Amino acid sequence: MKKYIDLIEQTFEFPQEEFKVINNELLFNDVPLMPIIEEYGTPLKLTYLPKIGANIEYARRIFNNAIKKYKYAGDYTYCYCTKSSHFSFVMDEAMKHDIHIETSSSFDIPIIHKMYEKGKIDKSTYIICNGFKRPLYKEFITGLLNEGFINCIPILDNLNELCHYEEYVKDKYDVGIRVAADEEPNFEFYTSRLGIRYSDINVLYREQIKPSKKARLKMLHFFINTGIKDSAYYWSELSRFIFKYCELKKECPELDTIDIGGGFPIKTSLGFHYDYKYMVEQIIENVKWICGKNNVPVPHIFTEFGSYTVGESGAILYSVIDQKLQNDKELWYMIDGSFITHLPDAWGLNQKYILLPVNKWNNLYHKVNIGGLTCDSMDYYNSEAHTSELFMPMNDEGDQEKLYMGFFHTGAYQESLGGYGGIQHCLIPAPKHVLVDKVEGEIKTRLFAAEQTSENMLETLGY
User: Fold this and answer.
1) How far apart are CA 141 and CA 108, in angstroms?
2) What is the pLDDT of residue 384?
């Protein structure tokens, strides 16, 4: 029989940039994980901060290289989509790389104020304000504009939104329009609930924005829920959007920017393949060709990457606390955590993550199911992105060392969707969270948050 490491090396190209094995133990971005487990215990969430900056710089480089290659006359601007993770350590790390911000709800704006107070951003930082806006959100956006945040751009999501800014914003300001794109053909409905439908865009400009003495249409915003994919659907929707930009540009000379929402995919399997460079070059080439065909100047390009920015920085580590053989054939590894509370996308969307053991790579392997701690029958994980089966190293009989495993590239959305700091299913506590950084080549760790306590939950529950 073969060892677990043989299985991985024969199934994938391994080791990989993020993952390698030394002395029977896994390294994540060259960070040994067993010493972190020994210091902090499990379950624990981990964020490797340098990965955030590395992904930002890579995206910026391939966009700028494509702009140069195709002699594209516009500029490129990278925005971070805050809803993917609002944590201060994510925002602080991202802002070190001279990026800008996209918001989605009212409570994003107090975060903007906090970052400004700390000198992380200034009043020239682009703040792209997306989403359907309730009164408080519009009030906060108006506050930013009146405080001199000159590049705060509310993206109009319905036909009545502009009225608020016209009444309360004191000076001239820029706005954008979000286009209601058609959803993927297999989606449950045809057109996005967000944004302005194509037939209303020109009317909105002519009747509300153009007559205004303060508002100026600066940006047309495009969002595809499935992200940037090399599919007929994506290219068709992008082309339709660029043709609309060209049509509107002829009416509105001030319009000079597009925002290509919906981000890059992230690696969710060791077999993941995605040609980022090719996709960016195709976007630049297509935008330039369509604008040339319509005799209009090419727009500046914004992107708003959320999962791509932060997703690959995250991991969550568990220990196997027991194994159970059910009905003579189903072997369960029980972990010291819960998928429903810690990785809600794995439960709610059947999202797959990279799952690897942290130790025991030289052990033989077998097929397993992984069970979480809640009493919910859906609290399990038993397949991977590339196969319907899941294999893990065997726990040798009499071996006193625990088996540890990690789910990787979990850094986007899981804390907010799981209700971090609040009430968890079956009152399973949120795990401790450890930040990992590299300072002059030396690995540094610090505890960001301890494991959630019963007192914290009882207070929330009113006890």
Assistant:
1) 10
2) 85
